[in-house]
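Retro notes (design track)

What went well: tokenization of the new backbones is finally stable.
What didn't: we kept losing track of which sequence belonged to which structure.
Fix going forward: every design gets posted as structure first, then sequence, in one message. First example under the new rule, 308 residues:
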């Protein structure tokens, strides 16, 4: 990306958006556009159109989204589908009207079928039924992906679609019910250790397999794709390392030095049984993640809980 070009990052206060902004700033004097919610309400079509007209961004990372873990997805499906669809419809159409150079739209591993063959290749997209706990969020993301591909075909919009695996790290949400598994458990283990509790409860059976990417690696991959990838074919971003939720919990307990028991609450949903992305297309372009799960968990724990 040329240093004179303007880069718009929507969702710059979120976990992924703030990591992208951090990395872009480290690269020096690029012109970053990071409007606040008051400056730019992405759900308001007229405001999005006029913002694009006024600021003429060249590159757009559309990273604003309503996100949450399994419980939030299951509890607020209307918000997840309505806000997310509205935001990306407005942004993609404004991108077309203002002739931007390129837009990056992130899909999500949860748009793949619940029982997709593993590791999940890009060709699994729309090849089966979606996991019911996140159908509304996935449907919004599927709409965004298909919209990018339609705009690329009909209007030659340079829209690229990155499909990230589950991300975690600095900027994560620790809300006890709305969070994803890593921040949720990290906080519970930490509190349990502090209060001398003898047990921490995991949601579900502990058997689901997940792949996790540290947010700095994900941000690096998104910038890499913006600079090096020009196709509306979906491209996966993962680590190709998977772990069961129970093993993840044991790893966290070790890092946090929680010595009590890990119990299971099987009345809570497991979600997809396995979600590991086949990322060899990305790796063959010469991008690889740098931060192991253990390293990422330690960094995140130190950042949030070991501050003096
Ligand atoms: O992180 P998580 O909510 O995301 O849950 P998903 C992953 C697994 O961890 C599930 C289990 O099997 C949960 O049942 N789990 C155990 C917990 N304890 C906890 C806990 O304390 N909190 C949470 N949150 N989970 C989400 C989708 O699915 O993945 C979203 O709902 C999004 O749409 C996101 O795509 C990346 O991988 O199950």
């Amino acid at each position: 990306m040329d240093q004179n070009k303007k880069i718009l990052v929507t969702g710059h206060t979120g976990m992924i958006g703030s990591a992208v902004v951090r990395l872009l700033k480290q690269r020096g004097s690029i012109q970053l556009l990071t409007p606040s919610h008051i400056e730019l309400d992405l759900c308001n079509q007229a405001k999005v159109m006029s913002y694009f007209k006024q600021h003429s961004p060249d590159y757009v990372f559309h990273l604003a989204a309503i996100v949450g873990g399994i419980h939030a997805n299951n509890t607020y499906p209307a918000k997840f589908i309505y806000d997310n669809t509205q935001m990306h419809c407005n942004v993609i159409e404004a991108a077309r009207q203002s002739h931007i150079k390129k837009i990056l739209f992130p899909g999500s591993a949860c748009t793949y079928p619940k029982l997709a063959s593993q590791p999940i290749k890009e060709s699994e997209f729309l090849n089966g039924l979606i996991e019911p706990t996140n159908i509304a969020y996935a449907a919004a993301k599927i709409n965004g992906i298909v919209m990018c591909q339609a705009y690329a075909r009909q209007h030659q919009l340079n829209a690229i679609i990155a499909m990230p695996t589950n991300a975690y790290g600095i900027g994560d949400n620790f809300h006890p019910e709305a969070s994803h598994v890593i921040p949720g458990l990290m906080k519970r283990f930490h509190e349990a250790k502090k209060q001398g509790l003898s047990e921490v409860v995991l949601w579900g059976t502990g058997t689901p397999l997940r792949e996790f990417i540290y947010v700095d690696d994900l941000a690096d991959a998104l910038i890499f794709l913006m600079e090096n990838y020009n196709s509306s074919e979906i491209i996966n971003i993962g680590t190709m390392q998977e772990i069961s939720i129970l093993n993840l919990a044991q790893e966290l307990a070790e890092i946090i030095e929680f010595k009590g028991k890990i119990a299971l609450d099987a009345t809570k949903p497991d979600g997809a049984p396995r979600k590991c992305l086949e990322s060899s297309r990305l790796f063959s372009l010469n991008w690889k993640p740098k931060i192991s799960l253990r390293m990422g968990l330690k960094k995140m724990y130190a950042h949030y809980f070991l501050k003096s």
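Added context from the reviewer: The longest helix spans residues 77-97.
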